[in-house]
Amino acid sequence: MQLFSTFDSNIFLEMAISTLEKRGINQENIYAVPLDNRTEDRKLFDTIHRSDGTSLIDIGFALATAFSVIGASIGFDLAWGPIYWGLISAFIGFVIGVAIRLFTEGVFKKRRRLKGKHAEVILIIECEETKGELVEEILWDHMAIGVAKIK
Fold first, then answer.
1. Side-chain half-sphere of 104: how many Cα atoms within 13 Å?
2. 3-class SS at 28?
3. DSSP state, 121?
4. For residues 75 and 59, what is the distance between their CA atoms, to the nearest angstrom?
5. Are the C-beta atoms of 32 and 126 separated by less than 8 Å?
6. Other beta carbons less than 10 A from residue 121's beta carbon
């Protein structure tokens, strides 16, 4: 039987491995495979085939609405009238909103991505079926992210 589990690279992984060795699992039957961190930068703009779930135009639409209302109401006193000034101010609000979103995604989220999570470790354990439940319990007790069994 093989058990696969994923761990964050921390002290709980080391404790799980040492507990498994104390409970009779040979060191040759325990494999730890660290995953590599992403080396390339994530793309800011989505394509038709890939999307990260964040929208760059949501703040732009909200500001365009707010600016167009203000621009249209001020436009009653201006030369071109409320329609033109509402459209002009909506465009200005949209551009400001997209610029704000690009700035937050490009600067603040990039800092968070650089700190980021450390890569996970995949732990593979080969054992007899009689020890399968014990090994699974040990893995869960030591903060495994996920565990899978193959008989």
1. 12
2. helix
3. E
4. 23
5. no
6. 17
Positive/negative CA dihedral, 95, 96, 99, 104 = negative
Single pTM value for the model? 0.55
Tens digit of pLDDT at every position of the chain (151 positions): 999 999 987 889 999 999 999 999 999 999 999 888 766 666 666 666 766 667 788 899 999 999 999 999 999 999 999 999 999 999 999 999 999 998 888 777 766 655 555 678 999 999 998 999 999 999 999 989 999 999 8
Distances (CA, A) of 30 to 36, 89, 114, 144: 20, 64, 31, 15
The 8-class DSSP code of residue 148 comes to E
Tokens of 118: 């450390």
- Alpha carbon of residue 135 to chain centroid: 30
Burial status of residue 133 (CB atoms within 10 A of its CB: 0-12, 13-18, 19 or more): exposed
Alpha-carbon torsion, ordered 20, 21, 27, 29, to 10 deg: -40
